[in-house]
User: Which sequence fits this backbone?
């Protein structure tokens, strides 16, 4: 069966740039109107009208800087050009510093049925370090208002590994997160991405990053705490509340596509698309993006066709990120190989160390193995596959 595809819309506006963030965004809103026109045109000119879709994900940037009318017009444009299933998941990322109960009610009316709220922390010092525009109270208010507005699928994002954070303060964040009872919790480890202000400050010695030992401890704490509070750990950074027998129902349907080679069309500046082993991406420049579209030209600035070797690497790396792991049958059919034979010694070694398991035709990391995702994936990738 062909998995339905996803639509991603990149809204490139933020009120202020957070020092750790390397996503493309600008703080000048003067091109907002022109951008809305252009992204609608880009969707209308897409040739992929035969695909069937079941997700729309509006990310950024800060999509909640747009009003419900604009977001609604983007959703309408997507629906007028593409085929969607009845229960399509429509997610919008929101920043707690940009919403009100009124705006969330309007979002709900415009067809949005899932929110991803960038709470990041319930601790004022952490929010200050991260340069967020909102307070700890705003985070709880956003979740509360989302519920009052009728949202029944709410995700919150948290960040750990912040300098001076302790296990005790991270546990307090986790307790508060569970206390507001969201359907989904993402916990990302703070990373210092090249070119960001935070990475420059780190190099200048402005702060002392958390030790690897403590970040590992916080990761284990996260897994233990959230799974014991009814959240299923389904991807290295993602946890979803279980709903009855259908344990996958609150997992992010859209993000699962990125980890399983499912086609996704991206629209807007810097947005990436993936269909049939081909990946392409738009100019990460809102002015250039608009100019190209208005001139009737393509906003695509790069593309690649994944080689067999690249596909193997991605399938291993992306598969190991999820707790379902790599589907051995799919791997063998796709690459005409014998996974268990090729990786026999490595699997034996890693199973003995308690880092991976092979069962039900799947190869997946144990919670202990998840701690070493990158190094274990590199061991697989280093094996010669003819
Ligand atoms: S609000 Fe989000 S997208 Fe904007 S700068 Fe901060 S982290 Fe990046």
Assistant:
């Amino acid at each position: 069966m062909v998995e339905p595809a996803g639509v991603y819309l990149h809204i490139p506006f933020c009120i202020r740039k957070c020092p750790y963030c390397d996503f493309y965004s600008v703080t000048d809103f003067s091109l907002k109107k022109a951008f809305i026109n252009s992204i609608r045109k880009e969707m209308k000119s897409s040739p992929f009208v035969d695909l069937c879709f079941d997700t729309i994900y509006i990310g950024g940037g800060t999509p909640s800087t747009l009003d419900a009318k604009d977001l609604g017009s983007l959703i309408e444009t997507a629906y007028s050009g593409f085929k969607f299933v009845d229960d399509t998941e429509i997610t919008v990322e929101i920043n707690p510093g940009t919403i009100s109960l009124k705006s969330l009610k309007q979002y709900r009316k415009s067809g949005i049925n899932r929110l991803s709220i960038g709470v990041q922390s319930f601790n004022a010092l952490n929010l200050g370090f991260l340069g967020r525009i909102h307070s700890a109270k705003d985070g709880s208010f956003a979740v509360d208002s989302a519920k009052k507005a009728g949202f029944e699928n709410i995700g919150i994002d948290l960040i750990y590994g912040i300098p001076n954070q302790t296990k005790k303060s991270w546990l307090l964040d986790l307790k508060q997160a569970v206390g507001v009872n969201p359907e989904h919790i993402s916990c990302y480890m703070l990373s210092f991405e090249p070119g960001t202000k935070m990475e420059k400050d780190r190099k200048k010695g402005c702060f002392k990053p958390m030790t690897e030992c403590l970040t590992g401890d916080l990761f284990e704490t996260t897994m233990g705490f959230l799974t014991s509070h009814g959240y299923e750990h389904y991807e290295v950074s993602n946890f979803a509340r279980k709903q009855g027998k259908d344990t996958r129902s609150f997992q992010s349907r859209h993000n699962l596509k990125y980890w399983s080679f499912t086609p996704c069309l991206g629209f807007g500046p810097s947005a990436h698309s993936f269909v049939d082993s081909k990946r392409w991406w738009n100019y990460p420049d809102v002015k250039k993006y608009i100019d190209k579209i208005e001139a009737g030209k393509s906003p695509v600035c790069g593309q690649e066709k994944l080689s067999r070797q690249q596909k193997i690497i991605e399938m291993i790396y992306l598969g190991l990120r999820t707790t379902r792991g790599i589907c051995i049958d799919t791997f063998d059919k796709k690459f005409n190989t014998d996974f268990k034979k090729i990786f026999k010694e490595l699997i034996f070694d890693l199973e003995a160390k308690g880092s991976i398991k092979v069962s039900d035709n799947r190869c997946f990391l144990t919670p202990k193995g998840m701690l070493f995702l990158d190094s274990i994936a590199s061991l697989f990738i280093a094996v010669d596959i003819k």
Q: What stands out?
A: The longest helix spans residues 212-228. The longest strand covers residues 83-94. The mean pLDDT is 95.
